[in-house]
Protein backbone atom coordinates (compact mmCIF):
# COMPACT_ATOMS: atom_id res chain seq x y z
CA UNK A 1 0.00 0.00 0.00
CA UNK A 2 1.27 3.47 -0.92
CA UNK A 3 0.71 6.23 1.62
CA UNK A 4 1.26 9.96 1.28
CA UNK A 5 2.34 11.64 4.50
CA UNK A 6 1.16 15.10 5.49
CA UNK A 7 3.69 17.70 6.59
CA UNK A 8 2.39 17.61 10.19
CA UNK A 9 2.92 13.84 10.36
CA UNK A 10 6.53 14.14 9.21
CA UNK A 11 7.20 16.88 11.78
CA UNK A 12 6.47 14.39 14.58
CA UNK A 13 9.66 12.51 13.66
CA UNK A 14 12.60 14.66 14.68
CA UNK A 15 14.90 13.08 12.08
CA UNK A 16 12.22 12.71 9.42
CA UNK A 17 11.15 9.47 7.75
CA UNK A 18 13.00 7.15 5.39
CA UNK A 19 11.70 5.01 2.55
CA UNK A 20 13.27 2.06 0.73
CA UNK A 21 12.55 2.37 -3.00
CA UNK A 22 13.42 -0.38 -5.49
CA UNK A 23 15.11 1.70 -8.18
CA UNK A 24 17.99 4.08 -8.68
CA UNK A 25 16.04 7.31 -8.31
CA UNK A 26 15.18 9.51 -10.09
CA UNK A 27 14.75 6.65 -12.59
CA UNK A 28 11.46 4.81 -12.18
CA UNK A 29 9.56 6.86 -9.66
CA UNK A 30 6.25 5.22 -8.87
CA UNK A 31 4.50 2.05 -7.77
CA UNK A 32 6.08 -0.56 -10.08
CA UNK A 33 9.77 0.31 -10.56
CA UNK A 34 11.07 -3.26 -10.83
CA UNK A 35 8.54 -4.26 -13.48
CA UNK A 36 9.27 -1.22 -15.62
CA UNK A 37 13.03 -1.66 -15.30
CA UNK A 38 12.81 -5.25 -16.55
CA UNK A 39 10.26 -4.51 -19.28
CA UNK A 40 12.41 -1.64 -20.51
CA UNK A 41 15.44 -3.91 -20.82
CA UNK A 42 17.53 -2.09 -18.18
CA UNK A 43 20.75 -3.91 -17.33
CA UNK A 44 20.78 -2.68 -13.76
CA UNK A 45 18.50 -1.25 -11.13
CA UNK A 46 18.99 -0.89 -7.41
CA UNK A 47 17.85 0.36 -4.05
CA UNK A 48 17.44 3.96 -2.95
CA UNK A 49 17.13 4.93 0.70
CA UNK A 50 15.53 8.36 0.61
CA UNK A 51 13.91 10.94 2.83
CA UNK A 52 10.14 11.09 2.59
CA UNK A 53 8.71 14.42 1.47
CA UNK A 54 5.14 15.52 2.26
CA UNK A 55 2.31 15.00 -0.22
CA UNK A 56 4.42 13.60 -3.10
CA UNK A 57 5.98 10.22 -3.88
CA UNK A 58 9.64 9.43 -4.51
CA UNK A 59 11.08 12.95 -4.68
CA UNK A 60 12.99 13.05 -1.38
CA UNK A 61 16.71 13.49 -0.91
CA UNK A 62 18.84 10.42 -1.55
CA UNK A 63 20.49 9.03 1.57
CA UNK A 64 22.05 5.89 0.10
CA UNK A 65 21.97 3.92 -3.13
CA UNK A 66 22.97 0.35 -3.94
CA UNK A 67 23.25 -0.93 -7.51
CA UNK A 68 21.87 -4.36 -8.45
CA UNK A 69 22.51 -6.07 -11.79
CA UNK A 70 19.59 -7.38 -13.83
CA UNK A 71 20.78 -10.70 -15.22
CA UNK A 72 19.70 -11.84 -18.71
CA UNK A 73 17.76 -14.83 -17.34
CA UNK A 74 16.21 -12.99 -14.39
CA UNK A 75 12.48 -13.09 -13.95
CA UNK A 76 10.52 -10.80 -11.65
CA UNK A 77 10.61 -13.07 -8.54
CA UNK A 78 14.39 -13.55 -8.91
CA UNK A 79 15.10 -9.84 -9.06
CA UNK A 80 12.62 -8.98 -6.30
CA UNK A 81 14.37 -11.44 -4.00
CA UNK A 82 17.80 -9.89 -4.61
CA UNK A 83 16.43 -6.37 -4.23
CA UNK A 84 14.74 -7.29 -0.95
CA UNK A 85 18.04 -8.53 0.43
CA UNK A 86 19.92 -5.48 -0.85
CA UNK A 87 17.25 -3.16 0.55
CA UNK A 88 17.31 -4.75 3.99
CA UNK A 89 21.10 -4.54 4.17
CA UNK A 90 21.09 -0.92 2.95
CA UNK A 91 18.45 0.13 5.47
CA UNK A 92 20.23 -1.49 8.42
CA UNK A 93 23.53 0.09 7.34
CA UNK A 94 21.84 3.48 7.06
CA UNK A 95 20.28 3.24 10.52
CA UNK A 96 23.64 2.34 12.04
CA UNK A 97 25.17 5.46 10.53
CA UNK A 98 22.07 7.63 10.73
CA UNK A 99 23.52 11.08 11.57
CA UNK A 100 26.27 10.98 8.95
CA UNK A 101 23.96 9.48 6.30
CA UNK A 102 21.35 12.18 6.81
CA UNK A 103 23.99 14.91 6.66
CA UNK A 104 25.27 13.53 3.34
CA UNK A 105 21.82 13.25 1.73
CA UNK A 106 21.66 14.79 -1.75
CA UNK A 107 18.72 16.14 -3.77
CA UNK A 108 17.57 14.05 -6.70
CA UNK A 109 18.71 15.13 -10.15
CA UNK A 110 16.20 16.77 -12.46
CA UNK A 111 17.65 14.74 -15.32
CA UNK A 112 16.91 11.10 -16.08
CA UNK A 113 13.49 11.14 -14.41
CA UNK A 114 11.22 8.30 -15.53
CA UNK A 115 7.97 7.01 -14.10
CA UNK A 116 6.64 3.55 -13.22
CA UNK A 117 2.91 3.95 -12.55
CA UNK A 118 0.72 1.24 -11.10
CA UNK A 119 0.19 -1.56 -13.60
CA UNK A 120 -2.94 -3.39 -14.66
CA UNK A 121 -3.78 -6.27 -16.97
CA UNK A 122 -3.59 -4.04 -20.06
CA UNK A 123 0.19 -4.01 -19.75
CA UNK A 124 0.22 -7.75 -20.52
CA UNK A 125 -1.41 -7.31 -23.94
CA UNK A 126 1.32 -7.72 -26.56
CA UNK A 127 1.50 -4.96 -29.18
CA UNK A 128 3.08 -6.93 -32.01
CA UNK A 129 3.35 -3.91 -34.33
CA UNK A 130 5.62 -2.04 -31.94
CA UNK A 131 7.48 -4.64 -29.86
CA UNK A 132 10.61 -6.48 -30.94
CA UNK A 133 11.11 -10.11 -29.96
CA UNK A 134 13.52 -9.02 -27.23
CA UNK A 135 10.96 -6.54 -25.90
CA UNK A 136 8.28 -9.24 -25.74
CA UNK A 137 10.67 -11.51 -23.83
CA UNK A 138 11.50 -8.66 -21.43
CA UNK A 139 7.81 -7.95 -20.87
CA UNK A 140 7.17 -11.61 -20.09
CA UNK A 141 10.09 -11.66 -17.63
CA UNK A 142 8.82 -8.48 -15.97
CA UNK A 143 5.28 -9.78 -15.48
CA UNK A 144 6.17 -13.29 -14.31
CA UNK A 145 3.84 -14.24 -11.48
CA UNK A 146 1.67 -11.15 -12.06
CA UNK A 147 0.00 -11.57 -15.46
CA UNK A 148 0.65 -13.91 -18.39
CA UNK A 149 1.13 -12.17 -21.72
CA UNK A 150 -2.06 -11.99 -23.77
CA UNK A 151 -3.03 -11.54 -27.39
CA UNK A 152 -6.12 -11.90 -29.56
CA UNK A 153 -6.45 -14.65 -32.17
CA UNK A 154 -9.64 -14.90 -34.25
CA UNK A 155 -11.49 -12.56 -31.87
CA UNK A 156 -10.55 -14.70 -28.85
CA UNK A 157 -8.16 -13.44 -26.20
CA UNK A 158 -5.57 -16.10 -25.41
CA UNK A 159 -2.82 -16.29 -22.81
CA UNK A 160 0.75 -17.18 -23.73
CA UNK A 161 2.91 -19.34 -21.46
CA UNK A 162 6.54 -20.43 -21.47
CA UNK A 163 7.86 -17.83 -23.88
CA UNK A 164 11.37 -17.79 -25.31
CA UNK A 165 13.12 -16.39 -28.35
CA UNK A 166 13.11 -18.54 -31.46
CA UNK A 167 16.35 -19.42 -33.22
CA UNK A 168 14.64 -18.99 -36.58
CA UNK A 169 16.27 -16.33 -38.75
CA UNK A 170 14.25 -13.11 -39.07
CA UNK A 171 12.32 -12.53 -42.28
CA UNK A 172 13.70 -9.10 -43.12
CA UNK A 173 11.81 -8.79 -46.42
CA UNK A 174 8.57 -10.22 -45.11
CA UNK A 175 7.52 -8.86 -41.75
CA UNK A 176 3.94 -9.37 -40.59
CA UNK A 177 3.92 -8.62 -36.85
CA UNK A 178 1.61 -11.06 -35.11
CA UNK A 179 1.95 -13.77 -37.75
CA UNK A 180 1.57 -17.10 -35.95
CA UNK A 181 2.62 -20.57 -37.08
CA UNK A 182 3.28 -23.99 -35.59
CA UNK A 183 6.78 -25.47 -35.61
CA UNK A 184 6.81 -29.28 -35.46
CA UNK A 185 10.52 -29.41 -34.69
CA UNK A 186 10.27 -27.38 -31.48
CA UNK A 187 6.63 -28.32 -30.79
CA UNK A 188 5.88 -24.68 -30.20
CA UNK A 189 3.95 -21.78 -31.66
CA UNK A 190 6.07 -19.09 -33.27
CA UNK A 191 4.86 -15.50 -33.45
CA UNK A 192 6.61 -12.83 -35.48
CA UNK A 193 7.44 -9.51 -33.83
CA UNK A 194 7.95 -6.03 -35.24
CA UNK A 195 11.67 -6.57 -35.94
CA UNK A 196 11.04 -9.72 -37.99
CA UNK A 197 12.27 -12.03 -35.23
CA UNK A 198 10.11 -14.74 -33.70
CA UNK A 199 9.18 -15.78 -30.19
CA UNK A 200 8.26 -19.34 -29.22
CA UNK A 201 5.28 -20.28 -27.04
CA UNK A 202 4.87 -23.84 -25.75
CA UNK A 203 1.50 -23.51 -23.96
CA UNK A 204 -1.65 -21.46 -24.48
CA UNK A 205 -4.62 -20.54 -22.32
CA UNK A 206 -8.00 -20.37 -24.08
CA UNK A 207 -11.12 -19.14 -22.22
CA UNK A 208 -13.21 -22.00 -20.86
CA UNK A 209 -10.52 -24.62 -21.42
CA UNK A 210 -7.57 -26.04 -19.54
CA UNK A 211 -4.13 -24.83 -20.52
CA UNK A 212 -3.14 -26.61 -23.71
CA UNK A 213 0.10 -27.42 -25.47
CA UNK A 214 1.10 -25.63 -28.65
CA UNK A 215 0.42 -28.85 -30.57
CA UNK A 216 -3.12 -29.07 -29.20
CA UNK A 217 -3.76 -25.40 -30.00
CA UNK A 218 -2.52 -25.98 -33.53
CA UNK A 219 -4.78 -29.01 -33.99
CA UNK A 220 -7.84 -27.43 -32.42
CA UNK A 221 -7.58 -23.84 -33.59
CA UNK A 222 -4.66 -22.72 -35.74
CA UNK A 223 -4.84 -25.41 -38.43
CA UNK A 224 -8.52 -24.64 -39.00
CA UNK A 225 -7.79 -21.06 -40.04
CA UNK A 226 -6.57 -20.03 -43.48
CA UNK A 227 -2.88 -19.11 -43.45
CA UNK A 228 -3.71 -15.56 -44.56
CA UNK A 229 -5.69 -15.02 -41.36
CA UNK A 230 -3.28 -16.58 -38.87
CA UNK A 231 -2.53 -13.27 -37.18
CA UNK A 232 -2.42 -12.30 -33.51
CA UNK A 233 -3.58 -8.79 -32.73
Automatic annotation (TrEMBL):
Residue span(s) of domain Formyl transferase N-terminal: 10-94
Alphabetical list of InterPro entries matching this protein: Formyl_trans_C, Formyl_transf_N, Formyl_transf_N_sf, Formyl_transferase-like_C_sf
Tree of life domain: Eukaryota
One GO CC term on file: mitochondrion
Domain Formyl transferase C-terminal span(s) in chain numbering: 118-221
Any GO molecular function: methionyl-tRNA formyltransferase activity
Name of protein: Methionyl-tRNA formyltransferase
Species whose genome carries this gene: Photinus pyralis (Common eastern firefly)
Amino acid sequence: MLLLFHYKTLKICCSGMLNVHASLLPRWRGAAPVIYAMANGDQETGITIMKIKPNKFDIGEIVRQVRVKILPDDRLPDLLNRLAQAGAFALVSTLREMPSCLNCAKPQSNEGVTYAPKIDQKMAVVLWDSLSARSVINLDRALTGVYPLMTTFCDTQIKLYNISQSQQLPLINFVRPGLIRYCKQSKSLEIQCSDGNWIMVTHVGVPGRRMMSAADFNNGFLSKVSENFRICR
